[in-house]
Design brief:
Elements (H helix, E strand, L loop, with lengths): L4 E3 L2 E2 L8 E3 L7 E5 L3 E3 L2 E2 L6 E5 L6 E7 L8 E2 L13 H4 L4 E2 L2 E5 L7 E7 L7 E5 L1 H4 L5 E5 L7 H4 L2 E3 L3 H4 L10 E2 L7 E3 L4 E9 L10 E6 L5 E5 L18 E7 L2 E9 L10 E6 L5 E5 L2 E2 L2 E4 L2 E8 L5 E6 L13 E6 L12 E2 L5 E7 L2 E9 L18 E7 L5 E7 L6
Parallel strand pairs: 1-5, 2-6, 3-7, 4-8, 6-9, 7-11, 8-12, 11-13, 12-14, 13-15, 18-27
Antiparallel strand pairs: 9-10, 14-17, 16-17, 18-21, 19-20, 19-22, 22-23, 23-24, 24-25, 26-27, 28-31, 29-30, 29-32, 32-33, 33-34
């Protein structure tokens, strides 16, 4: 099809294609080439108001080869009962109130795309003007492919952007755009084209002393081979917004349209007046969009809002204070030599290697140095020979006792909460 016009046809079946039905049940499959012409104003009481593509597998398939200058005009609409009105940021419910727009309907029963094949560049086709509707579990949510491209075709961003997600963004989690950007796939071959779908992943950047939110920290989020890389800055609370235009709370770190998978989160720029954290966090985004964050295999500190976890990323002031740590006998405060300790950030991160495996001297002192005001973990990894711990452990035993250590902004040190677990219950 190149210069023809198919307009104002009506289909009353459940799966028929208001303009064209391409069936998988043909002996050798069925194919349609669309390089021009207009398909518009067609309706269906079922699915596939414009072109209905019915593929089962790579042997029983329907293919639409598309390129050039095809037009779907003012659209093709399904009036099927129960369909949710498609999401269009530019007033779609008012403009398309006659039904749900389905220029191309992908009726595929497998995750691998068979039906829609882009065979060349597009010419004079408006951004987001081809509305593609597909089953969300086959083509959305986890950056699954919605189409393929012919071998040797070098598509540009403008070619991908002619396609628009006809399913509601609320269901498909494709980022709330009025159109969707396809991109070459990295799975199996680069002939697959993917929706830029995914989830919003948020964290909270806080002060390591009083846990107040902090703005201006810059983070990167990358997958294992760095084919997916995101950058975000903790929000200032006055002008930074999410993709829907809503103001972000101060300290919020938002990564948008992140597909499920495992990522590395790293701070690349510290907020003004704070130290840069050297640790990398592991972030796992599940198929439900919920993220889990760990540091050295320990889940990061968080608060819960309903079923959602809000992970706190700590920063410590660049200003430091002199701190003296000393081990004494509880009965008479006499110095105790040979006790071993680690001093860690409150989230379990290593401050530096010089604060690991500290050993108290004959006068009980095991560290003199500078720390920022903040909350820390003090881990007793061993105690001297010829002493008995009050838990009944015998000499030479590795204890693993944990303490909360707070350094105030005046330099006062307070050590509390002796316990066997890392954090207070």
């Amino acid at each position: 099809m190149n210069g023809d016009t198919i307009r104002n046809n009506e289909c009353t079946g459940n799966a028929c294609g208001g303009a064209i039905y391409v069936s998988a049940y043909e002996k050798n499959g069925a194919e349609l080439t669309l390089t021009g012409g207009t398909i518009t104003g067609n309706t269906s009481a079922g699915d596939g108001a414009g072109i209905y593509l019915h593929s089962i597998d790579n042997k029983s398939y329907a293919k639409l080869f598309i390129s050039g200058s095809p037009s779907f005009g003012e659209g093709n609409f399904s009036t099927k009962a129960g369909l949710v009105q498609a999401n269009d940021k530019n007033g779609g419910e008012a403009v398309y109130s006659s039904g749900v727009r389905q220029d191309i309907y992908l009726a595929e029963t497998a995750d691998t795309p068979y039906s829609l094949v882009v065979t060349g560049r597009f010419s004079n086709v408006a951004k987001g003007s081809i509305w593609v509707w597909a089953a969300k579990d086959k083509h959305y949510l986890t950056q699954k492919p919605f189409a393929t491209k012919a071998s040797g075709v070098n598509l540009q961003t403008s070619d991908y952007e002619v396609f628009r997600n006809a399913q509601p963004d609320l269901l498909t989690r494709c980022g709330g755009e009025e159109y969707l950007k396809g991109k070459p796939g990295t799975v199996s071959t680069d002939l697959q084209i993917y929706w830029d779908g995914g989830f919003d992943v948020t964290f909270l950047k806080v002060d390591g002393f009083n846990t107040t939110p902090v703005s201006g920290a810059v983070f990167t989020l990358k997958n294992a081979d760095s084919t997916l890389t995101y950058t975000a800055t903790s929000a200032n609370g006055t002008s930074d917004k999410d993709t829907s235009g809503n103001l972000l709370d101060v300290g919020t770190v938002l990564f948008s349209a992140v597909p499920p998978g495992t990522y590395t989160l790293k701070e690349t720029t510290a907020p003004s007046g704070y130290q840069l954290r050297s640790q990398s966090y592991t972030v796992v985004v599940g198929n439900d969009g919920k993220a889990t964050v760990t540091l050295d295999d320990q889940e990061l500190l968080h608060t819960s809002v309903g079923t959602t976890k809000q992970y706190r990323l700590l920063n410590y002031s660049a200003a430091t204070l002199k701190v003296i740590l000393k081990k004494v006998v509880s009965e008479d405060n006499a110095p105790l030599q040979g006790a071993k300790f680690d001093v860690l950030y409150w989230d379990g991160g290593v401050i530096n290697n010089s604060l690991l495996n500290l050993t108290s001297s004959e006068n009980g002192v095991f560290w003199i140095g500078n720390l920022s005001a903040g909350k820390y973990l003090l881990h007793e990894t061993g105690y001297p020979d010829n002493t008995t711990h009050n838990s009944g452990d015998t000499e030479g035993t590795i204890l693993g006792w944990w303490y909360t250590m707070t350094v105030s902004d005046s330099g006062e040190v307070n050590i509390t909460a002796q316990r066997e677990s890392k954090y207070p219950s």
